[in-house]
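G.,

No rush on this.
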Amino acid sequence: MLKVENVTKYYGDIKAVDNLSFEVRPGEIFGLLGVNGAGKTTTFRMITNLLDPTSGKITLNGKKIDYNMTDKIGFLTEERSLLTKLTVKEQCYFFGALKGMSDNEIEKSMNSLLNEFEVAEYKERKIKELSKGNQQKIQFVTAILNHPKLLILDEPFSGLDPINVELFKKVIIRLANEGSMIIFSSHRMEHVELFCEKLVILVHGKSVLEGYLKDIKENYQKKNILIKGDLTKKDLENIDGVIKVEKLKDEFNVQIKDKSYIDIVFNNIKKFKIIKFVVEEPTLNEIFVEKVGESYEK
């Protein structure tokens, strides 16, 4: 288990991370979210022992993370970190050697992953000759070559088309099922919702929301109702408890204060011919925008 306990990090007088705590257990996919400058990268660097916390502690399976434990960690950085003049094979051997893998272990893992990511044909090609999407695949391959116990994914879908996003998703879920602890960070909330069971949202290095995603959604007061029928936007806006009405093609997305207003909305529109009335949970994007906005206003 990864434990981050009351971690604070200062750069001079600037507090980059403020008393942050969370746990990631084997098989869990954990979301670490926030706008640019929220403290995510600093947190990743402390977890990988590239930076020391000013206070607090970080442990992996009860031990302080040091150079002896980094072989168990994989890190896909947001920035491209490939040596573009090397071939794909040379790149894999370089990263594998850094993780203490033998040549046989590297060869076996590399061939399996290149096949899984559908890039085996590029093994002898230089990195600089590959498309951005295939470079991202190779970067992911090198991050998981050592079958890490802890895997940090910072914007893993950068430069990928929808088909390859599905491929990455499949591999990430497989790794979690095999027991890897995965920390996932992305600005695309719909990607986070695909994977993450638990999450923390950071603002100025401090957690403003944390917990299981299903509980966060359930406890979030505002609800959405999708309504389709022979009524107008004004008909909906005049109903008690309605916060916002948005026209979506041939239907309306109605945001209400909380679930107690569902029946009120229904009773007010049942005189119309309604062909769709679906109550939806709020999206993580809506929750994220509200929580981050509230914190910046304080």
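When you get to it, here's the other one too:
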Amino acid sequence: MRTPNPFRGLGIALVTPFTPSGDVDYPALRALVEEDIAAGADFLCVLGTTAETPTLSAEERAAIMQTVREVNAARVPLILGCGSNCTADVCRYLTTADLAGYDGVLIVTPYYNKPTQEGLYQHYKAIAEASPLPVVLYNVPSRTGVNLEASTTLRIAADCDNVVAVKEASGRIQQIEDIVAAAPEGFEVISGDDAITLELLTVGAVGVISVIGNAYPLDFGEMVHAALAGDYTEALALHRSFSDLYKLMGVEGNPVGIKCLLCVMEKIGPTHRLPLVPASAGTRERIREAMKA
């Protein structure tokens, strides 16, 4: 029997705030988590792409996990990003790490290696067998260089009962619709792209792991919940209100856009870790104007 998917509705891909000296800003992180939960976020994604995870040390990642776990206090489900391009490393982590307080793991497709579809299947099968928590697949070919095809996603879902969903950020609408149409019972699709979340919700996705939700958890959450309730008129109006910001979030890459927006909102500082740098003055001004609009 398939493990139930606890990740529906508005999920927020948490950023990692840094102090001016480049250390993790734990007070700012605590404030963001508290605000997101108070605004009605349904779940939180910790140490995903938006968290600049590749630039964090193992000690920092563990401290961030603990911080979010403490602030959350079991109020909403937590999903932990812990994918890698080495299958053995992921399996070793899942069998040795302290995952208390977390309700699932988000596993990105292996990057750089560019495995075949058979390699992707075997990667996820091994991870599913090792994982003590429900697994969510994460397909984002623009970052990893490999697309997890619908047939492979469905094969994994059919063979691994603890693989409960896929976070789809391929932008390939037909591929995503194919997954929704043929998914085994209990296996679900989560949007990984804010700009097409409304469209995906109308064809059967059950939620989103959102970037822009860091800044607008209440408003973006209202859009998601309206769509899930079938109120597409309300959802469309809210979706359109974000049109300019959707574009600006990606103009210099993620999480540069969202961290700039949060900085303009005075919720975090402007610091990134190399190789990322803060948004340009032009992008910052465009974000400021879009906020006013």
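The longest strand covers residues 163-168. The chain has one domain: 9-236.

Enjoy the weekend,
O.
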